[in-house]
Amino acid sequence: MQKKGCAEFGRETDVVFTEYIQAALEKAEYKKLDDATWFAQIPGFEGVWANGKYVEECRKELVEVLEEWLVLKLRDEDSIPVVKGIGIRVKEITTT
């Protein structure tokens, strides 16, 4: 038997990855910088930040950074914050 890690979403019902990302993005804080670019970060998500010339460009980059951050957290089996009651964790499964 072989054990593998599998991402599992937790809430009363199954949710999709994009729902978690959307909930996290609702926490994002945006700030216009002195150089007229935009900076965004998500409190509680260390290292997840983005910068762009326009706020929408900044938001798109923030989504990409968040997705990559989640993949790394899952790969490393690090804890991931619960957002709006939505949690993601690695569940060990056994395959034959």
Brief account:
The chain is of the alpha+beta class. Helix content is 31%, strand content 31%. It has a single domain (2-95), classed as Double Stranded RNA Binding Domain.
Ordered list of secondary-structure elements with their pairings:
Layout: E1 2-10, H1 17-25, E2 29-32, E3 38-41, E4 49-52, H2 55-75, E5 87-95
Antiparallel strand pairs: 1-5, 2-3, 3-4
Give an overview of the whole structure.
- The protein has helices at 17-25, 55-75; strands spanning 2-10, 29-32, 38-41, 49-52, 87-95.
- The chain is of the alpha+beta class.
- The chain has one domain: Double Stranded RNA Binding Domain, CATH 3.30.160.
- The protein has a three-stranded antiparallel beta sheet, with helices on one face. Strands 1-5 form a two-stranded antiparallel sheet.
Key traits:
Double Stranded RNA Binding Domain, 2 helices, alpha+beta, 5 strands, two-stranded antiparallel ribbon
Number of domains: 1
Q: What is the number of strand segments?
A: 5
What is the CATH top level name? Alpha Beta
Query: What is the radius of gyration?
Result: 16 Å
How do the strands line up in the largest sheet? 2-3-4
- Which parts are unreliable, with pLDDT below 50 for 5 consecutive residues or more? 1-6, 9-14
Can you tell me the CATH architecture? 2-Layer Sandwich
Cα shape: elongated
**How much is the average pLDDT?**
85
User: What is the structural class?
Assistant: alpha+beta
The percent of residues in helical segments reads: 25-40%
Give the SSE order as H and E letters: EHEEEHE
Sheet with the most strands, sense and barrel status: 3 strands, antiparallel
CATH topology: Double Stranded RNA Binding Domain
For the record, give the distance between the C-alpha atoms at the N and C termini, rounded to a whole number. 5 Å
Strand percentage lies at 25-35%
Tally of individual helices: 2
